[in-house]
Amino acid sequence: MKWHKSARNILLAMAVASLWGSGCRSSNTANQVVVSVSGTASVMVPTQTQTITSTVTGATDVSSTFDCSYTTTPNPTTATPNPKPSASAECTSANGAVGVMSNIQNTSTTVASTATFTAPSVFPDQTKFPNVIVTITATSNSDKKKTGKFSFTFDSGIRIGLTPATATLGTVETQQFFAKDFNGLIVPPDQLTWGVTFEVTARISSASCSTGSDSCGSIDKTGLYTAPTAVPTAAPASTTTPVNAAGIVTVFAFSNVDNARIAQAAVTIVTLPSAAFPQPLHHRAACSRTSSSPPPTPLRRSA
Q1: How would residue 289 be classed by pLDDT, with cut points 50, 70 and 90?
Q2: In whole numbers, what is the pLDDT of the chain averaged over residues?
Q3: What is the DSSP secondary structure assignment for residue 152, as one 8-state letter?
Q4: CA 48/CA 271 separation, integer angstroms
Q5: What are the boundaries of each domain within the chain?
Q6: With 150 labelled, which of 20, 56, 195, 255 sits at a CA distance of 20 to 30 A?
Q7: What's the pTM value of the predicted model, to 2 decimals?
Q8: Which string of DSSP letters, residue by residue, matches 228-289?
C-alpha cells in the first residue's frame, strides 16, 4: 500500500509541475515584446509624404522612438559588378537631400507611435546619393532591445523611350536618335548619357563597343549614331551575355538625373551595294571629258 501511495504522490507532483511549467511558458510568450513598423509607400516621389507607424505588442507601454538613416550603393561597373552598400548614415547629415522625418507622435503609452516622412523636393543627386535607401527604425520604450524597421526608395518619375526604336543602316551611315518622355517631349541632351553596346539589354555599366577592331559604331552626346566602316562580327567573349547576333548593336541612353531610367534601340548594320553610293559630280565630269565619243553638234538658227 505504501508503494502505491508513493507512486500516486509522484504522479501528482509531476502533473502539477507540468501544469506550472506550461503556465510559465505561456506567460513568457505572451509577454514577449515585438515591434512592427509600417508605412504607406515603399517607393516615394519628390515632395511626397507618408505616415510611419510603430506597433508594439507584448507590453503595456506601446510607445516607440524613431530614427531615420540611409545607405547608398554605387552603380555596378565591369570591374565591380556587385558593389556593396555604404555604411548607414543619419538622414539629418544629408541636410534634406534624402528627405526629412517630422511630427513624431509618441507621448501616449497606449496608442501606437507615428511619424511623418517627407521625400526631398528633388530626386537625390545620383553622384552623391546613388541608389539611396532610407530606413526608419522604431525602438520600444518598454524594451530598448526590441526594434522594428521599415525601408523605402525614391522614384524620380522620369520615364524615357528612344525614337526610332529600330533602324537599319549601311556602313558609315548615320542616324539621329531622340529620347522622349511619356508626354512625347524630347529630353534635353545635357540630361542624358548615350552609349552603344553589343549587349541585348543595355545597362549603365554595359561594355562599350565603339572602339577596337570589331567596332559597332559610335554615338555622340546629342544622340547622333554613326555606323562602323564594316559590319560588326559576333561580340567578344568578354562581353556580358546575352549579346546580339552579328551585325546588330544596341544604342542606349540613360537619365543623368535617375540612372535607373534607361531606354534602348536596336540597329542592324548592313553592307550597301556599290551602286548605292553615287559618283561625285567632279568624277562624272572628268569621265565625260575623257570619253572617245564626239562632242554634240551645236544647234543652228535658221535664217
Answers
A1: very low
A2: 85
A3: E
A4: 53
A5: 34-154, 161-276
A6: 255
A7: 0.71
A8: -SS---SPPTTSPSSBPPTTEEEEEEEESS-TT-EEEEEEEEEPPPGGGSPPPHHHHHHHHH
Query: Does domain 161-276 correspond to CATH entry 2.60.40?
Result: yes
Q: Distance (Å, rounded) from C-alpha 51 to C-alpha 66? A: 12
284 vs 51: which has the higher pLDDT: 51
Asked whether 23 and 31 are in contact (CB, 8 A), the reply is no
d(CA 69, CA 134) in angstroms, rounded, equals 6
User: Environment class of residue 127 by beta-carbon count within 10 Å: exposed (0-12), middle (13-18) or buried (19+)?
Assistant: exposed
Condensed to tens digits (0 to 9), the pLDDT of residues 152-205 reads: 999 999 999 999 999 999 999 999 999 999 889 999 989 999 999 999 999 988
Is the separation of the CB atoms in 83 and 191 below 8 Å? no
Taking the domain 34-154, which CATH number applies? 2.60.40.10
Is there a contact between 119 and 45 (Cβ–Cβ < 8 Å)? yes
Helices (H), the chain: 2-30, 281-289
Q: Are 173 and 180 in contact (CB under 8 A)?
A: no
- Residue 222 is which amino acid? T
